[in-house]
Specification:
Layout (H helix, E strand, L loop, with lengths): L3 E5 L5 H14 L4 H22 L7 E9 L2 E7 L26 H8 L2 E5 L4 E7 L3
Antiparallel strand pairs: 1-2, 2-3, 3-5, 4-5
Length: 133
C-alpha cells in the first residue's frame, strides 16, 4: 500500500487520486460513514492544488500523502503554487455567492473534515479525519 503519491497538475489525474484514497481506506478499514467525506474533501484539495495553486501547469506536481496519527487519518496535499490568503475566501453560502460556480471547495473541505489546516502560505493543506467518533 502506498501512503504517498505524486501527480502532474492535470485534472485527468483525479482518478488516480480516487484510487489512492480507495486503497488507503480499504487498507485502514475506514468506516463507510466517513469514506465519502474523505473522498470528497481530498479530491477537492487536489483539484484546488491543480487549478488554483499550480494554475493547470502540466510541468508542476501535486503531492499527496496520508498517515494515521493520534486516532486521525491525516491527508497532506501540497502544490507548487504561490499560495493564497485562505482567510479571505468568500463564504459560498452567503446570498451574494450562492449562484457562483466556484468557491465551494474549501467550504466542502471545512465541512467534511474534523480539522482543516492551511500551512506554508496555503500551498499545503492538511485534512484530518477522526477515526474514533
Amino acid at each position: 500500500m502506498k501512503t504517498f503519491i505524486t501527480i502532474k497538475s492535470d485534472i485527468d489525474n483525479i482518478p488516480a487520486v480516487e484510487s489512492y484514497v480507495d486503497e488507503l481506506c480499504a487498507a485502514y478499514s475506514i468506516n463507510e460513514e466517513i469514506y465519502a467525506d474523505i473522498m470528497v474533501a481530498v479530491v477537492e484539495a487536489v483539484a484546488n492544488g491543480i487549478k488554483h495553486g499550480n494554475k493547470l501547469d502540466p510541468s508542476t506536481y501535486v503531492y499527496i500523502d496520508a498517515k494515521i496519527t493520534d486516532g486521525s487519518l491525516v491527508f497532506s496535499v501540497k502544490d507548487e503554487g504561490l499560495g493564497f490568503d485562505f482567510n479571505s475566501v468568500a463564504d459560498p453560502t452567503l446570498p451574494d455567492n450562492i449562484d457562483k460556480l466556484s468557491g465551494r471547495g474549501i467550504y466542502f473541505m471545512r465541512t467534511l473534515t474534523d480539522k482543516l489546516e492551511f500551512l506554508e502560505g496555503g500551498t499545503l493543506v492538511k485534512l484530518h479525519f477522526n477515526l474514533i467518533k
